[in-house]
Amino acid sequence: MKMNFSTMLIAFTLTVLMVVSSIHCQTIDITPGTFAQDEPSSTLCFNPCSDKLGDKECKTICLNKAYKDGSCIGFGIPPTSKYCCCTK
Question: What range(s) does the Defensin-like domain occupy (predicted)?
């Protein structure tokens, strides 16, 4: 079966979108240092902060997930995006 150019372009585009979305949906681990195998991280980062998800809401989410604290932390140089990060 021969694939024409438009079908191949659509298949390629869908593949790229799936890869990008799977990378974007992973949690971000910003804890510095080297950990031993199977040692859990003490920091969990997820959802980008926004006007609706600020420090107060982030802290509430983290406390509900049994973490001790939570806040919006900036990433990048200079920090261009903030993510909600929980700490144990």
Answer: 44-88
